[in-house]
């Protein structure tokens, strides 16, 4: 998986309060320090990925604008439905040669904890279709971010990236 699709996936996983074109609205995630655990199921020996993220209200909005900008309006379908206490998100996006179709089921209060289960397929020309299943659990650690994290930071495996700086880097250069 290239860096761009990986980054989009990470953004979606780390920030469930994504703006969407159709359907119900997702709840806002509480600002502060979040601990995330992700598991890619179905992969032989697939490791559990642990991450820390720091957010505030302004950063959540900017992260979603960036994520939607990276997708470049390539989603034919992005629908959110509330079903009881869960949120179901159906997505069909074409990013260059890669097509992703998925359903996410989100639950939790988004104030102290939430869980996301994403099942889908990734299709690339000339390659067999890949089935994907990702489970993410998140818990709120506090209003103040620790460990040197600032709003926009996502840290995993000793590597830290600030989504806001990526958003600026991904913006097209100004026209002259």
Structural class: alpha+beta
Q: How would you sum up the global shape?
A: globular
Strand content is over 45%
**Helix proportion:** 10-25%
Compute the number of helices: 3
* CA gyration radius, whole angstroms: 16 Å
* End-to-end separation: 35 Å
Strand order of the largest sheet: 1-4-5-6-7-8-2-3-9-10
Give your account of this protein's structure:
The chain is an alpha+beta fold and 176 residues long. The protein has helices at residues 3-14, 57-71, 163-170, and strands spanning 22-23, 32-41, 48-55, 75-83, 86-95, 98-108, 113-123, 130-142, 153-156, 159-162. A ten-stranded mixed β-sheet has the order 1-4-5-6-7-8-2-3-9-10. Helix 1 runs antiparallel to helix 2 and helix 2 packs across helix 3 (163-170). The radius of gyration is 16 Å and the shape is globular. The termini are far apart.
How would you summarize the topology of this molecule?
Layout: H1 3-14, E1 22-23, E2 32-41, E3 48-55, H2 57-71, E4 75-83, E5 86-95, E6 98-108, E7 113-123, E8 130-142, E9 153-156, E10 159-162, H3 163-170
Which short descriptors sum up this protein?
176 residues; ten-stranded mixed β-sheet; 10 strands; 47% strand; disordered C terminus
Brief synopsis:
Helices cover 20% and strands 47% of the residues.
